[in-house]
Specification:
single chain; 644 residues; alpha+beta; 8-stranded mixed β-sheet; 5-stranded mixed β-sheet; 32 strands; globular
Length: 644
């Protein structure tokens, strides 16, 4: 049997030889480092026999897929430890994550971080025991009987949901057996260092109608120093977490009597949103967009026509439980069908295209309570939304213009280095989520792939991540904890123009159906603000800072001069405040630094007499200058939207 290795070399082995045996035959170092194998591109356990000619790649901790299996195996070590410490626990699921792993468990009582000390100690005992991890494959009926013996109700439910003829995979380590498709490491001792870091709540299957489970998070690394480094980063992330820092800085708040996912923007936060919104709308206007303003709600008739009623109804807020005057109203989750109606008001010719509409849209989506967090996922949000109606010949140029606008915005806000691109495609197996027209989906995805490749976009693909009406380019970001979210999106739509009977007259006088691009230029303002808080740790660039200058009196004698300077700055459009309290100047400066104010002006007798200002940046003392010199300095910084 011939095995082709990653370097292209070919070796001959006996039929049934395992990847682990091949690794040992190559070198002891590779054998010791080996975690999992890839046979003909498919991840398998090292102990799986190879029964035909194949390509083989031995993966170690240096490989991302190797680290993922490493973390996944750690989650099963956690599950075994939980069952040992808390025998009454019911296990749910335990996947790897981008930075570690977690396991959802149903416990008959609440636990705290102090309780996890015993669980972590037991995990280290299991690792030290270096238990072999063995794979078992059984028929569904036998799997159900086996799991009934273990009295694991959540595992039973997972098995019952599989087709009757399914083969079910178990993994055994010592006396512990868990349901899992794998693959896993060959033994528990391959995992070196683990640390449990967090307890949270999570609904079974992410459905708020199901029982709330306990989710235990952990991390697993090859070296102890990596654990320590991660914990340091985690501590820094907690300092920058927008959900804490944004509240501490009084940018936003929530109120239980108002509701979850409905943030209240306080004056500073509202000012930042206003600054962002004005900039975005002005830039969109400069690029040929026409502003619309549409209702927050509509009859169900509109959403039935667009397809939202069939494909997105669970994510919408329906107004009232009963039909009123033969109408059912719902709050809008998107603005597209409203702008389509504006397009349809009057005959359009090819000379009217491309037609670019934009709107700062307040939208409503019925997010589950378990999914909501701070400003990143809310039930009411504001989107810099837009739709371009164009001819097929204009599609690529307009898509390029949308991408250019997105990248300009990301660069201006200082977020471009933190994003990556995902080509989100449909899943033909998901009959409920998508408009079912395979030919059009194939055409739309082919067109979009051509555009992305022509523009040189470096993207990953996401199957099942498309909108229900078309594929899209999602511009993804991660928060301080590494959780991925969509920041911006550009979507190609070949379905809804036809549904809405949107047409134009081409140069030959024939009626044609246009293409539609759905796009956002800066995404959801709430989520973007969350990223800005975390990116800059609250020390915002001057142009979007809610307080740009604080003017401080050195003594009571200079209070009037402080007010005069503050008023003049305000008159010139600077967000300035005055601090004339009878406090020591050192105290005032420290307080302004805690508030992360970009510039402080200290006015003493000398400055007042000579019309000077003593200037401090939040990180440095810039010395004395005239008022006009200071103003021109910060005006240039604001006008150029400098990112310090």
């Amino acid at each position: 049997m011939k095995i082709t290795l990653k370097d292209g070399s070919v070796i001959e082995v006996e039929n049934g030889t395992t990847a682990e045996q091949i690794a040992k035959s190559i070198s002891d170092n590779l054998f010791r480092a080996a975690l999992v194998a890839k046979v003909n591109g498919e991840l398998v356990d090292l102990k799986s026999p190879i029964t035909s000619d194949a390509t083989l790649e031995i993966l170690t901790y240096r490989d991302e897929e190797g680290r993922e299996v490493y973390r996944h195996t750690a989650s099963h070590i956690l599950a075994q430890a939980i069952k040992t410490v808390y025998p009454a626990a019911q296990l749910a699921i335990g996947p790897a994550t981008a930075t570690g792993f977690y396991y959802d468990v149903d416990l008959p009582f609440a636990i705290t971080m102090d309780d996890l000390v015993a669980v972590e100690t037991e995990m280290n005992r299991i690792i030290a025991a270096d238990l072999p991890i063995e794979r078992e494959v059984v028929a569904r009926k036998a799997a159900m009987a086996q799991m009934q013996g273990y009295d694991e109700v959540y595992k039973m439910q997972l098995i019952e949901e599989l087709p009757a003829r399914s083969k079910i995979t178990f993994y055994r380590q010592g006396n512990f057996v868990d349901l899992c498709r794998g693959p896993h490491l060959p033994s528990t001792g391959k995992v070196k260092h683990v640390k449990l870091i967090q307890i949270a709540g999570a609904y079974w299957k992410g459905d708020e109608h199901n029982k709330m489970l306990t989710r235990i998070y952990g991390v697993a690394f090859e070296k102890k120093s990596e654990v320590e480094e991660y914990l340091q980063k985690l501590a820094e992330a907690k300092k920058r977490d927008h959900n804490k820092l944004g509240r501490d800085m009084q940018l936003f708040m929530t109120e239980e009597r108002i509701g979850q996912g409905l943030p209240l923007f306080m004056p500073k936060g509202a000012k930042m949103i206003q600054t962002m919104q004005r900039f975005v709308e002005d830039e969109e206007q400069r690029r040929g967009y026409m502003l619309t303003k549409t209702p927050y709600m509509a009859k169900s008739d509109l959403y039935k026509l667009s397809g939202h009623w069939d494909h997105y109804r669970d994510g919408m807020f329906i107004i009232g439980d009963e039909v009123m005057d033969d109408e059912v109203l719902a709050l809008r989750p998107m603005t597209c069908p409203f702008q389509y109606m504006i397009y349809k008001n009057g005959l359009k010719s090819y000379r009217d295209l491309p037609c670019r509409y934009n709107e700062t849209s307040t939208l409503f989506r019925n997010e589950s309570s378990g999914e909501m967090h701070g400003l990143t996922r809310v039930r009411q949000f504001t989107l810099a939304e837009g739709h371009i109606i164009c001819t097929p010949e204009q599609l690529e140029a307009e898509f390029k213009g949308c991408l250019d606008l997105c990248e300009y915005m990301l660069n201006t806000f200082g977020l471009h280095d933190d994003i990556f691109y995902r080509f989100s495609r449909w899943d033909p197996k998901d009959k409920d989520k998508y408009i079912q027209d395979p030919a059009k989906w194939k055409e739309a995805e082919k067109t979009m792939k051509t555009i992305l490749d022509d523009l040189g976009v470096n993207y990953v693909e996401g199957i099942g991540e498309a909108a229900f009406y078309g594929p899209k380019l999602d511009i993804q970001s991660r928060n301080v904890y590494g959780k991925e979210d969509t920041l911006l999106t550009i979507q190609v739509d070949m379905f809804l123009a036809e549904k809405f009977d949107m047409t134009y007259i081409d140069e030959n006088g024939e009626k044609k159906t246009p293409y539609i691009i759905h796009r956002s230029s800066i995404g959801c303002y709430e989520r973007t603000l969350a990223l800005l808080i975390e990116k800059f740790g609250g020390a915002f660039p001057l142009w979007i800072s809610p307080e740009q200058v604080r003017v401080m009196s050195l003594t009571e004698r200079t209070a009037d001069k402080c007010k005069q300077i503050t008023d003049e700055l305000k008159r010139r459009g600077i967000l300035a405040t005055e601090d004339n309290r009878n406090e020591k100047i050192g105290y005032k400066i420290r307080e302004a630094q805690v508030d992360k104010v970009p510039y402080m002006l200290v006015i003493g007798d000398k400055e007042a007499e000579q019309n000077l200002v003593s200037v401090r940046h939040r990180n440095d003392n810039l010395g004395t200058m005239t008022f006009d010199e200071f103003y021109h300095k910060i005006r240039e910084e604001i006008d150029t939207k400098a990112i310090n």
